[in-house]
Amino acid sequence: MFARVALGLLLQLVVVRTGLSAGSAGSDAPGDDPRREFVEPHMGTLFRIVLYAPTGADGAAAARAAFLRIGELDRLLSDYHPESEAMRLSQEPVDTAVPVSEDLFALLQRSQVLAAATDGAFDVTLGRLTQLWRASRRTGSLPGPEALASARQASGHTLLRLDPAGRTVAFLRPGLRLDFGGIAKGYAAQAALAVLARHGITQALVAASGDLALGDPPPGRSGWSVDLAPFGPSSGPSHRLVLARVGVSTSGDTEQSLTINGVRYSHLIDPATGLGLTRAAAVTVVAPGAALSDALATACSVLDPTRLPGLVAGWPEPVHVILHQRQPDGTIQVATFGPPLPLSGFPTP
Ligand code: ADP
Ligand code: MG
What is the pTM assigned to this prediction? Predict the structure, then answer.
């Protein structure tokens, strides 16, 4: 229990620093620091764009286009909007191939790869179960056995059929519901970074709470400094990663947990039980893109830690995983998997 509470601090404490101390964002006078920052609420969180652009106007126009793209993805994917493309799929007759947008199809394809590689630990078809978890959060009680059995029956990555030729998806069981919560923010951050690049701005990052899409480094820097302070500023080890052109995501037990009868349930669903995870893990993933880092961070939080070395070693792209676990004696164990990063300890403030 103690370990779970401590681990709960991890997610919210990923801090991004640009490596520059002066706050001159917004000024476009010649010779001034061209760093600019823009923030908008999307997908239930704040998306932050940090970019370097020659003039304020260039940066603002690019950021506006990037936020529009994020908003468009939110409207397609959200399971909070009954009219989103993802939610409307649940209304279609079962076993019927339905044409979907490029984005929805791309996300489903990626998600199915993750599901297959993790034996369904990562599974975007768990929407009925996340719905129950949200109800539990409102009522403070676990779902009844019938509701749980019915939701579990209508969940499972093998209940989707994708056809790349026609870009269609079919649900093979009635009542199935998608939940892209474990991948959408990373996908959107990465898509927003691509929009900035199309506007000629490559020295940029897009951050959505625990998910970061990093572009080229700031001028004169080798990378963006990403500080991980997993257990708060006053305890445990911290890391500074200096990275560029990658996705970085942190996932695990969060403040969104729920305690019922003394048991703490994470908002990550354990497909084995249909309920929130009770085993705490906190994982940071660095991967070639933020969609992958987001999904893998969720997947690695759900998977038993003994599975992580195999998953990372067998992944076709280079991915780096940092697992934080607080031991029963209160010390923090950090395990890393995958090719080494420029990762070094630094004193916490
Ligand atoms: P956060 O959204 O808190 O940053 P994650 O990226 O780990 O953290 O995503 C958590 C969300 O993923 C949950 O709120 C839920 O919508 C969804 N989810 C929960 N369990 C799973 C799972 N086993 N596989 C895929 N997605 C999940
Ligand atoms: Mg995730």
Answer: 0.89
